Amino acid sequence: MTSRRYKRVVVKLSGRAFAGSEPLGLDAGALAHVADELLAARELGIELVVVVGGGNFFRGNTAQEWGIEQAEADNVGMLGTVMNGILLRGVLKQRGLEDVRLMTALPMPAMAEPFIRLRALRHLERNRVVLLGCGIGQPYVTTDYPAAQRAVELGADAILLAKHGTDGIYDRDPRKDPAAQKFLALGYQDILEKDLRVMDQSAILLAREHNIPLHVFDFEEKGAVTAICSGEDRGTHVASFTTTTMSPVVAQAN
């Protein structure tokens, strides 16, 4: 049997995971890739919690463009996470996975279960994939913090932070500077001190407080979730390191 580093992980997916190469909307191929990655990890015996974003439908930070309050925009964004969750649940079931549950922080009993920590734990103990929508059910909060909070609540061994268009954390924006270098390993404090905008600071602080490692990686890379759970360090590994490690290879200009 293949060895594994983690038994239970939180996979944080942005809305881009459902949109493919487009900034908005849905892409069937992208959904199939998401399903492939989750099913492969489940075959490895990993207990999966998936925090679903909704930016492919609507982003709360565009409130000013639409002339509405931030709270209203964030409410629309939370509904987007539910739509993605329903779609992902449907695709996984179509692929033969019946043991999948969508839970939401806001009550929507006709479409999903309410998030109840003990119930979610029971699902995981019964080897069910748990999809989480609506963040924590509050405006002014991105899905970064809920990923860290649910990881703590559900006893996850790590948070897998899926990115698109980048394969880790860099010292500079690799899309603007071809000399940017990737961090292979970072401490939580390094991220805060260097002001690396990879995740909300509140989420980094919570992960640090509970010593939950983070893996920032390119979700478009096939097999990345399984590789990380098996012990490979893809992308950037964030934990209580005392030494920052950087890749000797600089980024390639796109």
Structural class: alpha/beta
Counting structural domains, the number is 1
- How much strand content do the residues show? 15-25%
Percentage of residues assigned to helices = 25-40%
Morphology call: globular
CATH class descriptor name: Alpha Beta
Mean pLDDT: 91
Order of helices and strands: EHHEHHEEHEHEEEHHEHEE
The N- and C-terminal alpha carbons lie at a distance of: 39 Å
Assigned CATH architecture: 3-Layer(aba) Sandwich
Helix count, DSSP H or I runs of 4 or more residues = 9
Number of distinct beta strands: 11
Characterization of this structure:
The chain has 254 residues and is an alpha/beta fold. The chain has one domain: 3-Layer(aba) Sandwich (Carbamate kinase), CATH 3.40.1160. Helices cover 36% and strands 21% of the residues. The protein has nine helices and eleven strands. Strands 1, 2, 3, 4, 5, 6, 7, 8, 9, 10 and 11 form an eleven-stranded mixed β-sheet that branches. It starts with 7 loop residues before the first strand and ends with a strand. The model has no long low-confidence stretch (mean pLDDT 91).
In short:
Helices cover 36% and strands 21% of the residues. It has 254 residues and is an alpha/beta fold. Helix 2 (28-43) packs across helix 4 and helix 6 runs parallel beside helix 8 (201-209).
Summarize the helices and strands and which ones pair or pack.
Blueprint: E1 8-13, H1 16-19, H2 28-43, E2 47-52, H3 63-66, H4 70-94, E3 100-104, E4 113-114, H5 117-125, E5 129-133, H6 144-153, E6 158-163, E7 169-170, E8 181-187, H7 188-194, H8 201-209, E9 214-218, H9 224-230, E10 236-239, E11 245-250
Parallel strand pairs: 1-2, 1-6, 2-5, 3-4, 3-5, 6-9, 8-10
Antiparallel strand pairs: 7-8, 8-11, 9-10
Helix pairs in contact: 2-4, 2-9, 6-8, 7-8
